[in-house]
Specification:
Blueprint lengths: L1 H18 L3 H14 L1 H12 L7 H24 L2 H7 L2 H5 L6 H34 L5 E3 L2 E4 L1 H32 L3 H17 L8 E6 L2 E6 L11 H9 L11 H27 L5
Antiparallel strand pairs: 1-2, 3-4
């Protein structure tokens, strides 16, 4: 077990070193930083131009984060699509497998690398959104007429919880990206096929939300819309919950039907694409 962890850690370090030299990754993270930081300033100036003021720094940060996710998710997905194809295109994978590295360790290292990329993306986005909110409005206690609605510690605790759910949603995207990458022999092919799949699943969100099946949970009947199969859109669910907090609506529990549905869908698609990637990595002849 310890040897496997060491091997995976070394593979992740090698992956991060390689990624830091590819323009796709450099430009991608540059775009995410631009979306988060200068984008926050432009949003503030646009609000001022139309005489609109956010109710609080948290209101500004959360609404901005929703906008940032909309654009950043697709950028991160494209970057994760090249994780396997880099090694295949450069024939690096053949040399990796001649060493005491199993195919399972190789696959898990790619997931670990994707996890690092997801964490970096979330740090960049929150730094830009919360940093701008602090600069323009402040991030102290949430108050109204000098009455403290929520203390700052409460707000940041819920931000941390929302971030964990965001990471879960990004994890399902990473799983699809790695499944695509494991089948491709070129980075360009992985990106094109990945974008087609991403747009396909995104388009499924257009299915009317009134269509679905009824399921029972917590003693109540809930609608499970067919549009939920558009799992990339589930990224926004925790932010919609968090966005209510800044208006003074308390979050009694994070374990609501919407969050449960998001968790089931994200985990389900994540495991499905993990199975696809694992089967491909186990059967593929990387010597060709």
């Amino acid at each position: 077990m310890h040897d496997s962890l060491v091997t995976i850690a070394r593979l992740v370090r090698a992956d991060l070193t390689k990624l830091s030299h590819y323009w796709v990754v450099i430009v991608g993270y540059g775009a995410i930083a631009i979306i988060a930081v200068p984008g926050a300033a432009l949003t503030h100036f646009a609000e001022q131009a139309v005489k609109v003021t956010s109710g609080s720094g948290y209101d500004f940060a959360f609404s901005l984060m929703i906008r940032c996710l909309d654009m950043s998710a697709s950028i991160l997905f494209v970057m994760m699509c090249i994780l396997f194809s880099i090694d295949v295109a450069n024939s690096t994978v053949k040399y990796i497998l001649t060493r005491p590295v199993t195919r399972t360790e190789l696959l898990l290292s790619k997931y670990a690398t994707a996890g690092v990329m997801i964490a970096l993306t979330l740090v960049l986005l929150w730094a830009g959104c919360l940093g701008a909110a602090w600069y323009y409005y402040g991030l102290g206690d949430l108050t109204e007429n000098e009455y403290v609605i929520f203390e700052a510690g409460t707000m940041f605790r819920h931000v941390a919880i929302a971030t964990l759910f965001l990471a879960l949603g990004f994890g399902s995207l990473a799983s699809m990206a790695l499944a695509v990458s494991s089948y491709s022999s070129t980075m360009g092919g992985a990106i094109i096929i990945g974008l087609i799949l991403y747009l396909f699943f995104g388009a499924l969100a257009l299915i009317p939300p009134t269509l679905g099946v009824t399921v029972h949970w917590g003693g109540e009947a809930h609608l499970l819309p067919y549009s939920t199969i558009s799992f990339p859109t589930q990224l926004f669910v925790p932010m919609y919950v968090l966005d209510n907090l800044s208006t003074g609506i308390p979050i009694e529990s994070w374990w609501t039907w919407d969050i449960l549905r998001m968790t089931m869908v994200s985990v389900g698609f994540g495991l499905f694409f993990f199975g696809v990637a694992a089967h491909r990595v186990r059967k593929r002849d990387f010597a060709l």
